[in-house]
């Protein structure tokens, strides 16, 4: 989107991250509308764990906030203006926005893996501004028209759902794939929904939080297991997982990314199976790689997603996936509500997906 800046005209407002625990709604000057861009009136924005991390710590992984940045990247809205070359959408269309802009010149982009572009410009990843704003400007090719039977909130949910879809693709989940999911947070839950949509006949999910496990059960998990944070419990917990599955665990998705969760994933997965690391909780881990390698357990990683929005929209509009139960809290776009929404999301507990309605 470009870095933009603060405007004095007050026509467009955005939620600016000005520092740790410092979020303010302030004027936002949009970049110029290019011939292949569209201007979007943003109507729905979800809060992601990375957004909370930037607010609470000023960084997420290797990305650090060093100057004021508009936050938010899970979004949908209504087309307000189109560039001179745009043919795919028209003013008034409701669209879901894919938040990452590849360079389209590097080998990764040319090879189709634009999610791995080293020059990716991604909403609310420093220094790129995000989408918790009245309006944004975005490439038309990354704005996907919503089917009539989908809400703008469901359009915004395409972003987290895309992570689950991409993970299932990477792990080749199908009609004969038994699945274990470690972590029943928002990403674990969308991975559950995606695995079901891809035909997984049995899905077991584990977490430390009983409430989130109860949500997972309602969403269709065959079995739920509450685990601890203690490494010494791994052996017993793996036995519980394997007993609940009844057969071997073909694919495990670690949607947390801690040493303990990855060790559980490697130990629980059957010989010749696959572990997909989705969560990025720890940058470095101590895990039993050699025993897993001796059983030919493959490890794959994912980073964001690619070419997932059409699939998400088809799965949502057909009813194969329903993300509406994941939206647990809704807030408007005022200073007090923005602050309360982020505190609600940060607390976790009964909050799964916190959504803004603009």
Helix-strand blueprint:
Elements (H helix, E strand, L loop, with lengths): L12 E7 L2 E6 L9 E10 L2 H9 L1 E2 L2 E2 L4 E2 L3 E9 L11 E4 L2 E2 L5 H4 L10 E2 L12 E5 L3 E3 L6 H5 L1 H13 L7 E5 L3 H12 L4 E6 L2 H9 L4 E4 L7 H12 L3 E6 L4 H10 E9 L11 H6 L3 E4 L7 H9 L9 E5 L3 H13 L5 E5 L1
Parallel strand pairs: 13-14, 13-16, 14-15, 16-17, 17-18, 19-20
Antiparallel strand pairs: 1-2, 1-6, 3-7, 3-11, 3-20, 4-5, 7-8, 8-12, 9-10
Helix pairs in contact: 4-5, 4-10, 7-8
Give the domain tally.
2
Taken from the alpha-carbon principal axes, the silhouette is globular
Beta-strand content: 25-35%
- Low-confidence runs of at least 5 consecutive residues: 1-10
Report how far the terminal alpha carbons are from each other.
Answer: 20 Å
Which bin fits the share of residues in helices? 25-40%
**Rounded average pLDDT:** 94
What is the CATH architecture annotation of the largest domain? Alpha-Beta Complex
What is the β-strand count? Answer: 20
Q: What is the name of the CATH class of the largest domain?
A: Alpha Beta
Within CATH, the superfamily of the largest domain carries the name Medium-chain alcohol dehydrogenases, catalytic domain
Helix/strand-derived category reads: alpha/beta
């Amino acid at each position: 989107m470009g870095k933009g800046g603060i405007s004095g005209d007050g026509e467009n407002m955005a939620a600016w991250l000005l520092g740790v625990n410092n979020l303010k709604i302030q004027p936002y000057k949009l970049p110029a509308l290019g011939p292949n861009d569209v201007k979007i009136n943003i109507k729905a924005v979800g809060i992601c764990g990375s957004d909370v991390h930037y607010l609470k710590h000023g960084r997420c992984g290797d990305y650090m906030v060093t100057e004021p940045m508009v936050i938010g990247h899970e979004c949908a809205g209504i087309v307000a203006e189109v560039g001179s070359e745009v043919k795919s959408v028209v003013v008034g269309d409701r669209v879901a926005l894919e938040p990452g802009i590849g360079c389209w010149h590097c080998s990764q982009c040319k090879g189709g893996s634009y999610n791995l572009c080293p020059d990716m410009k991604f909403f609310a990843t420093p220094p790129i501004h995000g989408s918790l704003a009245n309006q944004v400007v975005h490439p038309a090719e990354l704005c996907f028209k919503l089917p009539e039977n989908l809400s703008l909130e469901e359009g915004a949910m395409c972003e987290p759902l895309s992570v689950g879809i991409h993970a299932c693709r990477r792990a080749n989940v199908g009609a004969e794939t038994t699945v274990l999911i470690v972590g029943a947070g928002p990403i674990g839950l969308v991975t559950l929904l995606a695995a079901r949509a891809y035909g997984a006949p049995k899905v077991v999910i584990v977490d430390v939080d009983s409430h989130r496990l109860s949500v997972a059960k309602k969403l269709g998990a065959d079995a739920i297991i509450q685990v601890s944070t203690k490494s010494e419990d791994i052996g017993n917990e793996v036995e519980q997982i394997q007993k609940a599955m009844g057969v071997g665990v073909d694919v495990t998705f670690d949607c947390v990314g801690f040493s303990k969760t990855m060790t559980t994933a490697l130990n629980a997965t059957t010989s010749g199976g696959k572990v997909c690391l989705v969560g990025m909780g720890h940058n470095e881990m101590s895990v039993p790689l050699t025993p897993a390698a001796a059983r030919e357990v493959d490890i794959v990683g994912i980073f964001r997603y690619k070419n997932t929005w059409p699939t998400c929209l088809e799965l949502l509009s057909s009813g194969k996936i329903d993300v509406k139960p994941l939206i647990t809290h809704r807030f408007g776009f005022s200073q007090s509500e923005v602050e309360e929404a982020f505190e609600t999301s940060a607390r976790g507990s009964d909050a799964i997906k916190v959504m803004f309605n603009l």
